[in-house]
Amino acid sequence: MLRARARIDLGAIERNCRRLDAAAGDAALCAVVKGDGYGHGAVPAARAALAGGATWLAVATANEASALREAGIDARLVDLGALSPDELDVALQADADVVAWTSGLLDAVAARGGGRVHIKLDTGMGRLGTRDPAEATALARRAVDDPALTLAGLLTHFATADDLGDGFLDEQLARFVDWATPLKRDRPNLVLHAANSAATLREPRAHFDLVRCGVAIYGLDPFGRDPAEQDLEPAMTLTSYVAAVKGVQPGESAGYGRRFVAEEPATLATVPIGYADGVRRGLTNNADILIGGRRRPLAGTVSMDNVTALVDDDVSELDEVVLIGEQDGERVLAEEWAARLGTINYEVTCGISARVPREYGPDDGLEA
C-alpha cells in the first residue's frame, strides 16, 4: 500500500476531449499539457487527448516540448511561452511552433534556420504579445516575406472567459477579429486561435480555427463550480490510507500549534500525506476527507507528511482515504479545495507534488 498516490483516469481525459472537440464544432482541438499536464502527467495526458480527438498539443516551455518529442509524440506542437535564446534552440529542435510578438523574436527564429511562428496580439491579457495591431500586422507580413519563416497562425488569450458575468471577453474578441480578419482573408491557411477551455464552452464566436483547452481536458470545471455541469469527468483521484487511529480526551490536542483541541472525547485518524505532497496548510481545520464513503473533517494543522481527521469508531487502520475524488458515491472535488483556499482548481492539481506517484488507468490501450 502506497502512503499516497494520484490515480489518473486516462479514459476520462479521452472522453473529456471528445466532449470538447464536439463543442468546438469545425475548429480543431489543441490539448494544453503544460505544467506536466496540470499535474496529471504530460505524456500520458497527451496520448489520451490525441486519442480523444485533439490534433494539436500546447506547452509553455521548451523542455516540455522536448519531453513530448522524446516520448515519441509527433502531433503538431505549439510552445505558447516566452523563450530565452537557449530555450528557443530547444523548442525549434523539437519542431515546435513558437509565438512571436517582436521583430527581435522573428530575427532569432530566422537566425536559427527558421521555423513556424504564430503572431500574438495582446487584446487585454496584459502579458505576452504586442498591444499594437499595426505592429502585429507588420510582424505577420515580415514573417510571410522572410523565406526562413512560416507564418502559421495568429492568436490572443482571454483574461476573463471563466467569469460568466464579465463582458471583457467581448471586447477582446472584437479587437482580435478586427486585427486578424484582413490577414486571414489574404492568407486563408492561417490558423486563428483564441479560446481557452472556458471560451470554448461559452462562446462559439471565439472558436475560429483552433481551440486551446487545458483545464477542461482534465475534468476540471473552467468556471470553478462542478465539472458535471459541463459534462466533464475529473481525471485525478488523490488517495492515502489511515495509518493510526487513537482516542483523544477533552483538552488533548493534535498537530503543530495545537490548532485542534478536543472539547469532548473523540477519535482521530492520522493519514500520512501532507503539504510536501500538495495538501496545503491552508486546509488546516478547513477540509473534509473521505473514509468509508463519508466525509471526515480535518482536525489540526496540516503538516509536511501527515494530516489528522475526526472520525468515528467505524474507521480502522489501513482504510483507504480519498482526499480528492469519489468514494462510495460521495465526492470531494478539486473545486472544493480551491474554494476553501481562495484559489483555482488547477492550482490544486498542479500542486500535487512529484512525491506522489501517478498511476494510470483504466487500460484503454493507451501507454502511460
Describe the structure concisely for a colleague:
Belongs to the alanine racemase family. The chain has 368 residues and is α/β, with parallel strands linked by helices. It has eleven helices and 20 strands.
Structure description:
This protein is an alpha/beta fold and 368 residues long. Residues 363-368 have low confidence and may be disordered. It is 29% helix and 25% strand. It folds into 2 domains: 10-222, TIM Barrel, CATH 3.20.20; 236-361, Lyase, Ornithine Decarboxylase, Chain A, domain 1 (Beta Barrel), CATH 2.40.37.10. It has 11 helices and 20 strands. It has helices spanning 10-23, 34-38, 42-51, 62-70, 85-93, 103-111, 133-145, 168-186, 197-202, 334-341, 345-350; strands at residues 5-9, 28-32, 56-59, 76-79, 97-100, 115-120, 149-155, 191-193, 210-213, 236-241, 244-248, 253-254, 260-261, 266-271, 288-291, 294-297, 307-311, 320-327, 330-332, 358-361. A hairpin with a 2-residue loop joins strand 15 (288-291) and strand 16. Catalyzes the interconversion of L-alanine and D-alanine. May also act on other amino acids. Residues 235-361 form the Alanine racemase C-terminal domain. It catalyses: L-alanine = D-alanine. The modification N6-(pyridoxal phosphate)lysine is found at residue 34.
